[in-house]
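Q: Here's a chain of 393 amino acids. Please give me its 3D structure as C-alpha coordinates.
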Amino acid sequence: MGDVNAPDAVARAFRAERLRVLATVIRLTGDWELAEECVQDAFEAALLRWPADGVPRRPGAWLTTTARNRALDRLRRANVEAAKLQELAEAPDAGDDEWTDDRLRLIFTCCHPALTLDARVALTLQTVGGLTTEEIARAFLTSTATMAQRVVRAKRKIREAGIPYRVPPADLLPERLTGVLGVLYLLFNEGYSGRRELAGEAIRLGRLLARLMPTETEVRGLLALMLLQHARAAARTDRNGDLVPLDEQDRSRWDRTLIDEGRGLLTGTPTPYQLQAAIAACHAAAATAADTDWPRIACLYEQLAGLTGSPVVQLNRAVAVAMAEGPQAGLRLVDALAASGRLRGYHLLPATRADLLRRLDRRAEAATAYEQAIALAPTEVERRFLRHRHDEL
Protein backbone atom coordinates (compact mmCIF):
# COMPACT_ATOMS: atom_id res chain seq x y z
CA MET A 1 0.00 0.00 0.00
CA GLY A 2 1.25 3.48 -0.84
CA ASP A 3 1.95 6.25 1.64
CA VAL A 4 -1.16 8.46 1.69
CA ASN A 5 0.74 11.15 3.62
CA ALA A 6 3.40 11.49 0.93
CA PRO A 7 1.87 14.58 -0.82
CA ASP A 8 1.89 16.45 2.50
CA ALA A 9 5.49 15.36 3.04
CA VAL A 10 6.46 16.72 -0.38
CA ALA A 11 4.78 20.04 0.44
CA ARG A 12 6.64 20.21 3.78
CA ALA A 13 9.91 19.33 2.06
CA PHE A 14 9.35 22.08 -0.50
CA ARG A 15 9.00 24.66 2.25
CA ALA A 16 11.86 23.33 4.38
CA GLU A 17 14.38 21.99 1.86
CA ARG A 18 13.94 23.84 -1.46
CA LEU A 19 16.47 26.55 -0.69
CA ARG A 20 19.07 24.07 0.59
CA VAL A 21 18.69 21.80 -2.43
CA LEU A 22 18.76 24.65 -4.93
CA ALA A 23 21.81 26.29 -3.34
CA THR A 24 23.72 23.00 -3.38
CA VAL A 25 22.89 22.19 -7.01
CA ILE A 26 23.86 25.71 -8.13
CA ARG A 27 27.23 25.22 -6.43
CA LEU A 28 27.75 21.81 -8.01
CA THR A 29 26.76 22.79 -11.56
CA GLY A 30 27.59 26.49 -11.71
CA ASP A 31 24.46 26.87 -13.86
CA TRP A 32 21.59 28.81 -12.30
CA GLU A 33 18.85 27.92 -14.81
CA LEU A 34 19.87 24.26 -14.99
CA ALA A 35 19.83 23.99 -11.20
CA GLU A 36 16.34 25.50 -10.93
CA GLU A 37 14.98 23.13 -13.59
CA CYS A 38 16.56 20.06 -11.98
CA VAL A 39 15.30 20.95 -8.51
CA GLN A 40 11.81 21.34 -9.96
CA ASP A 41 12.24 17.90 -11.60
CA ALA A 42 13.29 16.43 -8.25
CA PHE A 43 10.14 17.64 -6.51
CA GLU A 44 8.01 16.33 -9.37
CA ALA A 45 9.77 12.97 -9.01
CA ALA A 46 9.01 13.01 -5.28
CA LEU A 47 5.32 13.52 -5.99
CA LEU A 48 5.39 10.42 -8.18
CA ARG A 49 7.63 8.13 -6.13
CA TRP A 50 7.07 8.92 -2.46
CA PRO A 51 3.41 7.79 -2.45
CA ALA A 52 4.55 4.37 -3.73
CA ASP A 53 8.00 4.00 -2.14
CA GLY A 54 7.38 5.86 1.11
CA VAL A 55 8.87 9.13 2.36
CA PRO A 56 12.67 8.87 2.64
CA ARG A 57 14.28 9.20 6.06
CA ARG A 58 16.23 12.27 4.86
CA PRO A 59 13.99 14.05 2.34
CA GLY A 60 16.51 16.83 1.68
CA ALA A 61 19.30 14.40 0.84
CA TRP A 62 16.98 12.41 -1.46
CA LEU A 63 15.94 15.58 -3.29
CA THR A 64 19.54 16.80 -3.57
CA THR A 65 20.74 13.48 -5.01
CA THR A 66 17.84 13.34 -7.44
CA ALA A 67 18.38 16.91 -8.62
CA ARG A 68 22.13 16.33 -8.93
CA ASN A 69 21.57 13.19 -11.02
CA ARG A 70 19.13 15.03 -13.30
CA ALA A 71 21.76 17.74 -13.78
CA LEU A 72 24.41 15.13 -14.52
CA ASP A 73 22.21 13.55 -17.19
CA ARG A 74 21.52 16.93 -18.78
CA LEU A 75 25.19 17.88 -18.81
CA ARG A 76 26.19 14.52 -20.31
CA ARG A 77 23.75 15.06 -23.15
CA ALA A 78 25.25 18.54 -23.63
CA ASN A 79 28.76 17.01 -23.88
CA VAL A 80 30.18 18.96 -20.98
CA GLU A 81 33.89 18.31 -20.37
CA ALA A 82 34.68 15.04 -18.60
CA ALA A 83 36.37 16.64 -15.58
CA LYS A 84 33.24 18.61 -14.65
CA LEU A 85 31.06 15.53 -15.08
CA GLN A 86 33.37 13.47 -12.87
CA GLU A 87 33.35 16.16 -10.17
CA LEU A 88 29.56 16.34 -10.22
CA ALA A 89 29.12 12.54 -10.23
CA GLU A 90 31.42 12.10 -7.24
CA ALA A 91 30.00 14.97 -5.17
CA PRO A 92 28.95 13.60 -1.75
CA ASP A 93 25.57 14.10 -0.19
CA ALA A 94 25.52 17.50 1.48
CA GLY A 95 25.65 17.63 5.25
CA ASP A 96 24.08 20.37 7.35
CA ASP A 97 27.25 22.49 7.54
CA GLU A 98 27.77 22.42 3.81
CA TRP A 99 24.13 23.27 3.19
CA THR A 100 24.44 26.24 5.52
CA ASP A 101 27.41 27.50 3.51
CA ASP A 102 25.52 26.99 0.24
CA ARG A 103 22.52 29.00 1.42
CA LEU A 104 24.78 31.83 2.52
CA ARG A 105 26.57 31.74 -0.84
CA LEU A 106 23.23 31.97 -2.61
CA ILE A 107 22.02 34.94 -0.53
CA PHE A 108 25.25 36.88 -1.05
CA THR A 109 25.26 36.11 -4.77
CA CYS A 110 21.67 37.32 -5.19
CA CYS A 111 22.60 40.55 -3.39
CA HIS A 112 25.93 41.15 -5.14
CA PRO A 113 26.67 44.88 -5.59
CA ALA A 114 27.40 44.37 -9.30
CA LEU A 115 23.65 43.83 -9.79
CA THR A 116 21.18 46.70 -9.85
CA LEU A 117 19.07 47.09 -6.73
CA ASP A 118 15.90 46.10 -8.62
CA ALA A 119 17.64 42.95 -9.85
CA ARG A 120 18.89 42.07 -6.36
CA VAL A 121 15.40 42.38 -4.91
CA ALA A 122 13.74 40.34 -7.66
CA LEU A 123 16.41 37.62 -7.64
CA THR A 124 16.35 37.34 -3.84
CA LEU A 125 12.56 36.98 -3.75
CA GLN A 126 12.51 34.38 -6.50
CA THR A 127 15.58 32.31 -5.69
CA VAL A 128 15.86 32.61 -1.91
CA GLY A 129 12.23 33.34 -1.10
CA GLY A 130 10.69 30.93 -3.59
CA LEU A 131 8.11 33.43 -4.87
CA THR A 132 6.93 33.08 -8.46
CA THR A 133 7.59 35.79 -11.02
CA GLU A 134 3.86 36.56 -11.02
CA GLU A 135 3.81 37.00 -7.23
CA ILE A 136 6.82 39.34 -7.29
CA ALA A 137 5.37 41.39 -10.15
CA ARG A 138 2.05 41.73 -8.33
CA ALA A 139 3.76 42.85 -5.13
CA PHE A 140 5.70 45.58 -6.95
CA LEU A 141 2.76 46.59 -9.17
CA THR A 142 4.55 45.80 -12.42
CA SER A 143 3.99 43.35 -15.26
CA THR A 144 5.07 39.73 -15.11
CA ALA A 145 7.08 40.21 -18.31
CA THR A 146 8.99 43.16 -16.85
CA MET A 147 9.81 41.26 -13.67
CA ALA A 148 10.85 38.17 -15.63
CA GLN A 149 13.26 40.29 -17.66
CA ARG A 150 14.84 41.64 -14.46
CA VAL A 151 15.45 38.13 -13.18
CA VAL A 152 16.84 36.91 -16.50
CA ARG A 153 19.18 39.90 -16.76
CA ALA A 154 20.39 39.34 -13.20
CA LYS A 155 21.23 35.69 -13.86
CA ARG A 156 22.94 36.61 -17.14
CA LYS A 157 25.00 39.25 -15.34
CA ILE A 158 26.10 36.70 -12.73
CA ARG A 159 27.19 34.30 -15.47
CA GLU A 160 28.82 36.76 -17.85
CA ALA A 161 30.57 38.84 -15.18
CA GLY A 162 31.84 35.73 -13.42
CA ILE A 163 30.37 36.83 -10.09
CA PRO A 164 31.79 34.34 -7.57
CA TYR A 165 29.35 32.02 -5.83
CA ARG A 166 30.72 32.42 -2.33
CA VAL A 167 30.45 34.09 1.02
CA PRO A 168 32.80 37.11 0.82
CA PRO A 169 36.17 36.88 2.56
CA ALA A 170 36.45 38.45 6.00
CA ASP A 171 37.78 41.80 4.75
CA LEU A 172 34.78 42.28 2.42
CA LEU A 173 32.09 40.81 4.66
CA PRO A 174 31.01 44.00 6.54
CA GLU A 175 30.44 45.95 3.32
CA ARG A 176 28.70 43.08 1.54
CA LEU A 177 26.58 42.15 4.55
CA THR A 178 25.33 45.73 4.71
CA GLY A 179 24.11 45.35 1.14
CA VAL A 180 22.32 42.09 1.93
CA LEU A 181 20.60 43.65 4.94
CA GLY A 182 19.68 46.66 2.84
CA VAL A 183 17.84 44.43 0.36
CA LEU A 184 15.91 42.75 3.17
CA TYR A 185 14.98 46.07 4.76
CA LEU A 186 13.85 47.45 1.39
CA LEU A 187 11.54 44.45 1.04
CA PHE A 188 10.23 45.04 4.56
CA ASN A 189 9.56 48.72 3.93
CA GLU A 190 7.65 47.89 0.74
CA GLY A 191 5.48 45.63 2.86
CA TYR A 192 5.21 48.17 5.67
CA SER A 193 3.81 50.64 3.13
CA GLY A 194 0.86 48.36 2.45
CA ARG A 195 1.95 45.08 0.83
CA ARG A 196 2.10 42.95 3.98
CA GLU A 197 3.13 39.77 2.20
CA LEU A 198 6.50 41.40 1.43
CA ALA A 199 6.99 42.39 5.07
CA GLY A 200 6.32 38.80 6.12
CA GLU A 201 8.75 37.49 3.50
CA ALA A 202 11.47 39.91 4.66
CA ILE A 203 11.04 38.70 8.24
CA ARG A 204 11.20 35.06 7.14
CA LEU A 205 14.44 35.74 5.25
CA GLY A 206 15.76 37.74 8.21
CA ARG A 207 15.15 34.78 10.51
CA LEU A 208 16.96 32.52 8.06
CA LEU A 209 19.95 34.87 7.88
CA ALA A 210 20.04 35.12 11.69
CA ARG A 211 20.20 31.32 11.92
CA LEU A 212 22.99 31.20 9.35
CA MET A 213 24.97 34.08 10.91
CA PRO A 214 24.08 33.95 14.62
CA THR A 215 27.05 36.06 15.80
CA GLU A 216 26.44 39.02 13.46
CA THR A 217 25.07 41.88 15.57
CA GLU A 218 23.53 43.80 12.68
CA VAL A 219 21.69 40.73 11.39
CA ARG A 220 20.09 40.42 14.82
CA GLY A 221 19.46 44.16 14.85
CA LEU A 222 17.64 44.20 11.52
CA LEU A 223 15.52 41.20 12.46
CA ALA A 224 14.66 42.83 15.80
CA LEU A 225 13.71 46.06 14.05
CA MET A 226 11.44 44.30 11.55
CA LEU A 227 9.75 42.23 14.25
CA LEU A 228 9.12 45.21 16.52
CA GLN A 229 7.71 47.31 13.69
CA HIS A 230 5.64 44.48 12.25
CA ALA A 231 4.16 43.84 15.70
CA ARG A 232 2.17 47.07 15.25
CA ALA A 233 0.84 46.19 11.78
CA ALA A 234 -2.71 45.28 12.85
CA ALA A 235 -3.12 48.62 14.66
CA ARG A 236 -1.65 50.87 11.94
CA THR A 237 -4.92 51.18 10.01
CA ASP A 238 -8.58 51.34 11.01
CA ARG A 239 -11.50 49.40 9.53
CA ASN A 240 -11.64 51.80 6.60
CA GLY A 241 -7.97 51.28 5.80
CA ASP A 242 -6.99 54.75 7.05
CA LEU A 243 -3.71 55.29 8.89
CA VAL A 244 -3.80 55.46 12.68
CA PRO A 245 -0.92 57.50 14.20
CA LEU A 246 1.32 55.71 16.69
CA ASP A 247 0.04 57.70 19.66
CA GLU A 248 -3.58 56.80 18.80
CA GLN A 249 -3.10 53.09 18.15
CA ASP A 250 -4.89 50.44 20.19
CA ARG A 251 -1.89 48.85 21.89
CA SER A 252 -3.86 45.75 22.82
CA ARG A 253 -3.69 44.88 19.10
CA TRP A 254 0.10 44.91 19.09
CA ASP A 255 1.58 41.41 18.76
CA ARG A 256 3.36 40.78 22.05
CA THR A 257 4.93 37.55 20.77
CA LEU A 258 6.73 39.43 17.99
CA ILE A 259 7.70 42.17 20.46
CA ASP A 260 9.22 39.66 22.87
CA GLU A 261 11.11 37.96 20.05
CA GLY A 262 12.43 41.30 18.81
CA ARG A 263 13.51 42.53 22.23
CA GLY A 264 15.35 39.26 22.78
CA LEU A 265 17.59 40.06 19.80
CA LEU A 266 18.81 43.41 21.14
CA THR A 267 22.47 43.48 22.17
CA GLY A 268 22.94 47.07 23.30
CA THR A 269 25.58 47.56 20.61
CA PRO A 270 25.43 51.09 19.10
CA THR A 271 25.14 49.98 15.47
CA PRO A 272 22.56 51.39 13.01
CA TYR A 273 20.02 48.56 13.04
CA GLN A 274 20.50 47.87 16.74
CA LEU A 275 19.81 51.55 17.52
CA GLN A 276 16.71 51.60 15.33
CA ALA A 277 15.49 48.43 17.01
CA ALA A 278 16.15 49.97 20.43
CA ILE A 279 13.96 52.93 19.44
CA ALA A 280 11.17 50.58 18.35
CA ALA A 281 11.56 48.72 21.66
CA CYS A 282 11.04 51.97 23.57
CA HIS A 283 7.68 52.39 21.88
CA ALA A 284 6.81 48.73 22.53
CA ALA A 285 7.65 49.08 26.23
CA ALA A 286 5.23 51.99 26.80
CA ALA A 287 1.82 50.92 28.10
CA THR A 288 0.30 54.14 26.72
CA ALA A 289 1.53 56.89 24.43
CA ALA A 290 1.97 59.15 27.46
CA ASP A 291 4.39 56.64 29.00
CA THR A 292 6.81 56.77 26.05
CA ASP A 293 10.38 57.62 27.04
CA TRP A 294 10.87 60.40 24.49
CA PRO A 295 14.14 61.77 25.97
CA ARG A 296 15.73 58.32 25.53
CA ILE A 297 14.34 58.04 21.99
CA ALA A 298 15.76 61.47 21.13
CA CYS A 299 19.14 60.38 22.51
CA LEU A 300 19.07 57.17 20.45
CA TYR A 301 18.20 59.13 17.31
CA GLU A 302 21.10 61.49 18.01
CA GLN A 303 23.48 58.50 18.17
CA LEU A 304 21.97 57.08 14.98
CA ALA A 305 22.29 60.40 13.14
CA GLY A 306 25.94 60.56 14.16
CA LEU A 307 26.53 57.11 12.65
CA THR A 308 24.55 57.49 9.44
CA GLY A 309 24.36 61.21 8.69
CA SER A 310 20.88 60.47 7.34
CA PRO A 311 18.54 63.49 7.01
CA VAL A 312 15.57 61.15 7.53
CA VAL A 313 17.04 60.13 10.89
CA GLN A 314 17.52 63.81 11.72
CA LEU A 315 13.85 64.42 10.92
CA ASN A 316 12.83 61.58 13.23
CA ARG A 317 15.07 63.03 15.94
CA ALA A 318 13.27 66.37 15.52
CA VAL A 319 9.96 64.62 16.19
CA ALA A 320 11.38 62.98 19.33
CA VAL A 321 12.78 66.31 20.54
CA ALA A 322 9.39 67.93 19.96
CA MET A 323 7.76 65.26 22.12
CA ALA A 324 10.42 65.55 24.83
CA GLU A 325 10.95 69.34 24.91
CA GLY A 326 7.95 70.84 23.13
CA PRO A 327 6.90 71.56 19.51
CA GLN A 328 8.92 74.79 19.23
CA ALA A 329 12.19 72.93 19.89
CA GLY A 330 11.28 70.35 17.27
CA LEU A 331 10.23 72.99 14.73
CA ARG A 332 13.62 74.70 14.93
CA LEU A 333 15.29 71.44 13.93
CA VAL A 334 12.77 70.79 11.14
CA ASP A 335 13.19 74.30 9.71
CA ALA A 336 16.97 73.92 9.74
CA LEU A 337 16.63 70.62 7.91
CA ALA A 338 14.28 72.17 5.36
CA ALA A 339 16.74 75.02 4.78
CA SER A 340 19.47 72.49 4.01
CA GLY A 341 17.48 71.17 1.04
CA ARG A 342 18.46 67.57 1.82
CA LEU A 343 14.87 66.33 2.05
CA ARG A 344 13.41 68.28 -0.86
CA GLY A 345 10.48 66.29 -2.26
CA TYR A 346 10.15 64.06 0.82
CA HIS A 347 6.52 64.27 1.95
CA LEU A 348 7.20 63.62 5.65
CA LEU A 349 9.19 66.86 5.96
CA PRO A 350 6.20 69.19 5.32
CA ALA A 351 3.92 66.68 7.10
CA THR A 352 6.05 66.87 10.24
CA ARG A 353 6.29 70.63 9.99
CA ALA A 354 2.50 70.85 9.58
CA ASP A 355 1.92 68.78 12.72
CA LEU A 356 4.26 70.93 14.80
CA LEU A 357 2.67 74.14 13.51
CA ARG A 358 -0.78 72.72 14.33
CA ARG A 359 0.36 71.99 17.88
CA LEU A 360 1.61 75.59 18.12
CA ASP A 361 -1.84 76.78 16.91
CA ARG A 362 -0.30 78.40 13.79
CA ARG A 363 -3.19 77.13 11.70
CA ALA A 364 -2.72 78.98 8.41
CA GLU A 365 0.93 77.92 8.17
CA ALA A 366 -0.01 74.38 9.16
CA ALA A 367 -2.66 74.22 6.41
CA THR A 368 -0.11 75.30 3.80
CA ALA A 369 2.36 72.68 5.01
CA TYR A 370 -0.31 69.96 4.90
CA GLU A 371 -1.14 70.93 1.31
CA GLN A 372 2.53 70.56 0.39
CA ALA A 373 2.69 67.14 2.06
CA ILE A 374 -0.50 65.94 0.32
CA ALA A 375 0.97 66.86 -3.07
CA LEU A 376 4.10 64.80 -2.32
CA ALA A 377 2.58 61.78 -0.53
CA PRO A 378 3.23 58.54 -2.50
CA THR A 379 0.12 56.55 -1.49
CA GLU A 380 -3.58 57.23 -1.30
CA VAL A 381 -3.68 55.99 2.32
CA GLU A 382 -1.16 58.65 3.34
CA ARG A 383 -2.94 61.34 1.31
CA ARG A 384 -6.24 60.53 3.02
CA PHE A 385 -4.62 60.82 6.45
CA LEU A 386 -3.05 64.18 5.60
CA ARG A 387 -6.29 65.53 4.09
CA HIS A 388 -8.10 64.55 7.29
CA ARG A 389 -5.54 66.43 9.39
CA HIS A 390 -5.80 69.41 7.03
CA ASP A 391 -9.58 69.46 7.21
CA GLU A 392 -9.50 69.35 11.02
CA LEU A 393 -7.90 72.78 10.94
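Q: Can you summarize the key feature?
A: The chain has 19 helices and no strands.
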